[in-house]
Write a structure and sequence with these properties.
15 helices, RAE1 geranylgeranyltransferase, GDP-dissociation inhibitor activity, 23 strands, transferase, Guanine Nucleotide Dissociation Inhibitor, domain 1, GDP_dissociation_inhibitor, cytoplasm, alpha+beta, eight-stranded mixed beta sheet
Length: 620
Amino acid sequence: RMFFLYRKNYYGGNWASFSFSGLLSWIKENQQKTDGSDEWDDWRKLILENEEAISLSKKDKTIQHVEDFCFGDQDSAEGVEEAGALPKLPVFGTAGAEGVAQESEEAHSAVESTEPESPEPEKATGTEPASAREGSDAEITSENASSHSAALGESAGELGQTEAAPPETSAQEPKKITYSQIVREGRRFNIDLVSKLLYSRGLLIDLLIKSNVSRYAEFKNVTQILAFREGKVEQVPCSRADVFNSRQLAMVEKRMLMKFLTFCLDYEQHPDEYQDHENGTFAEFLRTRKLTPSLQHFILHSIAMVSETDCSTLEGLQATKKFLQCLGRYGNTPFLFPLYGQGEIPQCFCRLCAVFGGIYCLRHPVQCLVVDKESGRCKAIVDHFGQRISAKYFIVEDSYLSESVCTNVCYRQISRAVLITDQSVLNTGSEQQVSILTVPPVDLGKPAVCVVELCSSTMTCMKGTYLVHLTCPSTKTAREDLEPVVQKLFNLNTEKETENEELEKPRVLWAVYFNMRDSSGIDRNSYDRLPANVYVCSGPDSALGNDCAVKQAETIFQEMFPTEEFCPPAPNPEDIIYDEDEIAPEESGLSNSPETKPETSTEEMSSGGSAAVEKADNEE
């Protein structure tokens, strides 16, 4: 049996999604400087003479430099009593740490517990039962069957079309969104801490289909691949139809682009065309193909999405081929996005785990690992209640490891920004667009910034707004890394009088910047004193896809159970026959999902940011 212990009061760790008020609480928590010194400290008395303890970190230190801003007047938000007395954030130029830190926890929880006036179906992240959403999903998907939303089928060829929200066709001028509206409609936001997309032929999609976990989720196609060139945002033609319908490219350029993309699909069969350039960069190789500067820009930054200086020719060809192979499986772009946010994915796996007896505990910190001195293996953990929990295997998220264990570890950082805006970065006539844009660096050697823009039909923001995620590997603080890109794409001017050029840009209503630890790629041998049966999993990496997380999960599973299949197809819940002596009737269905919160301290929750243990058969 698997036990998942979380020290936080929310699901998913750094893979989590939050409502707007939930995100404000998260911001406040990470801006406060606490060391967890109030934790129970008598756990050392439980360690026997033939045992030693490896203490774990009391505070999650994976998030740093959190700064939030409200761009505009917030006076109207003060009267929103039904949403709770939220803190008044400063206007642009002053970080919002002080305003958020002054707000009590009761005020934030009051917002999350307040139902919006609108009767439209919604989801509060991590708290709504799956059964409660079935009706709303049916209501949503029956509106219009011609949208780009997709529900993954049980086989790779099956695709169900669904509609998350009808397109907005109002001819009136868009209404000005105020801070009070964002507060009032806060539960319509599902804001991810990590921004990722799913490649339609990536490892995660294949795993979702193989394991039947895809039945618990719905997806929407990314509808636009964009490029930022010469100070303007342009749409990138990537499929054959897009190329020949494009008005941006001359006929000669269309032929050149199609010829190169065709070559990339089977470049392994033509080594003579690239082997002389294997030691060079992909950007240099593109210049030898006699492509125009605009085509080189599209391929490098929007199709291969690789660095101009650090990516080799082979890596660039592989990235281009991966992009092209994913086209057409579920739409005209290679990417899917899960409705209600990236935080849905770990919850989907958790729902299946709960069906087969997985137990998840929130607000359950772990004090230490208990190691047998003779065997050198970990035999138990001690939690903050003073309980010893024995197990055969232990999986620990990297943030739990203390500095004494991580003396030789050098972490990378990810710079993140989340914006709420009033318009799309590229208006195309449809307001329900999901877009990805890569902004190349101004200075060579610095990382490009990946921008993912989500519309309201993804169920991640309220109508009339867009949720924009910016991500890049860190060189400085998140604000220093990402604010120049924000200034290029968006209007940050809070004054009424602005230049015409700024008026054409989307206006930022609210923003937060933060740095997140990237512990992917850390070798196990870098950790000191870790027993052989303790496995370390990392948090999110900076890549756009999820391949790193899937490979890591499979590697850990195969080390523990070398003869077992990783995530085999699960039977349908209605076909499962339970032994009444071993499993209580109420544990036999989806009612025991992560969103169902029992009255006891044990709660179902999603994977990520937890310490997981597989309980031994002889445990009490």
